[in-house]
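Preliminary data (for renewal application), S-adenosyl-L-homocysteine complex.
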Amino acid sequence: MNAAMARIDCVLVRPQHPGNIGAAARALRTMGLSRLLLVAPRRFPDAEASALAAGADALLDAAPVHATLDAALAGCTLALGLSARRRGVSLDELDPRAGATRAFAHAAAGGRVALLFGNERTGLENDELARCHAMVRIPSVDDFSSLNLAQAVQLMAYELRLCALAAAPDAVATDAAPEPPAGLHEVETFFAHLWRTLDAIDFHKGRAPHTVERRLRRLFLRAQPSLRELRILHGVLADAERMAQLAQPRSAQGE
Ligand code: SAH
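Predicted structure:
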């Protein structure tokens, strides 16, 4: 578990539907977040919450239930409120990417972050948003701006996941790490082989090879092939040369 991600709380304020609590737990779990906090949920624990958590039960079981928002925010040093509308509170407004970047950087520096999500029907109240350092608005369309609660959680969790991956790319999959590009000398040897082969298969048909060679050079330099990839390409060229040789009239084959 990424240390910064472990310092980010997802706080659901007065959630109405237990299904949304479960779906939010699942959303967090898939993105490497582990802390779900509940403020005055209408029904919890609940079978529907467990069903929608789809195995992310540990987050539900560990979720503290607080009577007030202030109790949930104790110890938090940065609070971001998710809201579809501004509600007349003068707060900095961030998009999800900027909000996640700020939250992740704050947590990585040792702070404790709370992301506040409001009630399904009424959203976050003004006095709840007033406790926040900034609000995050998902840029939905004006005439239908409100996402499902758990889907809003998923979207923020995804943006945080991107921050975590960018901070520690090695954690993704070391076996997928790209091979280093081959050295310039090996690439030049490949070009020499390629030019020879193009001649052998009469690719240029009397035209000057210069333009094509320049373009192919640009293509392969852009691709930055590895040694292993160059070996495959040499193999392809060697076969093409062999075929060109076979296709020659017997007299030209030196017999
Ligand atoms: N009718 C409520 C919407 C509640 S949706 C309202 O108008 O505020 C439940 C919660 O999901 C919201 O309180 C908010 O935390 C989050 N949410 C939904 N849509 C969002 C959006 N476009 N931007 C940011 N948060 C959103």
